[in-house]
Amino acid sequence: MTSSNVCLDARDLLLGHKARRGNAFSTAVLDLNLQIMDEEFVVIVGPSGCGKTTFLEAVAGLVPVAGGALEVGGKAVKGPGPERSLVFQHASLYPWRTVLDNVLFGPQVQGRLTREVRARAEELLEIVGLSHVAGKYPHELSGGMKQRVNLARALATDPTLLLLDEPFGALDAQTRENLQDELLRIWQADTVSAKKTAMFVTHDVNEAVLLADRVLVFSPSPARVALEVKIDAPRPRDAAWRRSSEFLAYGDQILEALHHKPAEKTETPAPAPESAASEDSARNHDNGVNSDQAAEHARAGRGSAVQGTVRLGTAQA
Ligand SMILES: Nc1ncnc2c1ncn2[C@@H]1O[C@H](COP(=O)(O)OP(=O)(O)OP(=O)(O)O)[C@@H](O)[C@H]1O
């Protein structure tokens, strides 16, 4: 059951990337209109390059709003903030920090390293099944374990909105399924904080149907909502449901909507950012919990307009 407050509101949203030189602006998201309610689990699917990550990064405050409006909790997004946490496909943990210290990094840079925060970090490690490796270093962990730490770290700052960009895309099927279950457990009954709103990007239609209250199918670039599918199934969604004809029918509906031809990309002069985070403010932002995530994001190979780095390819499911 979701509450009726709007968590995220995008109205006629325009997002894109400025060329490193010159004034060219390449549109990634155009006239996007969508709302996400508090405590809702929304999954976004769409063709490669349609603008899903750009949208998530804008919500995280890492890509400036070039037009329209983008609000979280009724406030315009102007940069990273502690109420939003972003989890990337590749966990990029600090190799010189232990697992527990990685989880504590966000609160530490925020200057909130209290006894309660430490207790919460330890509890989060327990929730993701990693208490026994709290003192180990990232190189001693498997890929799935690293991504669990990543998830715990994103939750350590107690965000209200959890942004997940193909977080399980690089994992094997079994680990992926385990983490899907864990994520749902955390989202449904997080014992250490209130229920969260989640926005999850994936290329895996089955994953989308399994996790979502609502699946948004984005059109080819520039992204808009081409189809919205409400997944009307009770939780927890057990193995039997995953094999049901209803589950398969949802998947077919989404796949059908995905079979669109890509539209041509537009290149226009850069519009003046409206209420958006300026590049400098986002780059220099050091109060928000997730400024460290921005740096890690760049390290992990995913550049944003804010970071001004070149984007590397991402593995597709
Ligand atoms: N830092 C950047 N600079 C310039 N253009 C970029 C940058 N990042 C992304 N783009 C472009 O913006 C468009 C949308 O990319 P985005 O990564 O948001 O798509 P996506 O839907 O997440 O793709 P995928 O599913 O392949 O991860 C693409 O045309 C991409 O080439």
Can you tell me about this structure?
The chain has a six-stranded mixed sheet, with helices on both faces. A five-stranded antiparallel sheet has the order 5-4-1-2-11, with helices on one face. It has helices at residues 52-59, 99-103, 105-109, 115-127, 143-156, 173-189, 205-211, 239-242, 245-258, 279-284, 291-299; strands at 6-18, 24-37, 41-45, 67-72, 75-76, 84-87, 161-165, 197-201, 214-218, 225-230, 267-269. The protein is built from eleven helices and eleven strands. It is α/β, with parallel strands linked by helices. Bound molecules: adenosine-5'-triphosphate (ATP). Residues 17, 26, 28, 46, 48-54, 221, 303-305, 311, 314 line the site of adenosine-5'-triphosphate.
Key traits:
317 residues, alpha/beta, 6-stranded mixed β-sheet, 5-stranded antiparallel β-sheet, 21% strand, globular, binds adenosine-5'-triphosphate
Bound molecules: adenosine-5'-triphosphate
Mean pLDDT: 81
Structural class computed from helices and strand pairing: alpha/beta
Unreliable stretches (pLDDT < 50, length at least 5) are 262-266, 273-292, 294-317
* Terminus-to-terminus distance: 30 Å
Strand content: 15-25%
Helical run tally? 11
What is the rounded Rg? 19 Å
Largest sheet: 6 strands, mixed
Q: Which percent bin holds the helix content?
A: 25-40%
Shape: globular
Cross-sheet strand order for the largest sheet: 6-7-8-3-9-10
Pfam family, one: ABC_tran
Domain ABC transporter: 8-245
Region (Disordered): 263-317
Protein name: ABC transporter ATP-binding protein
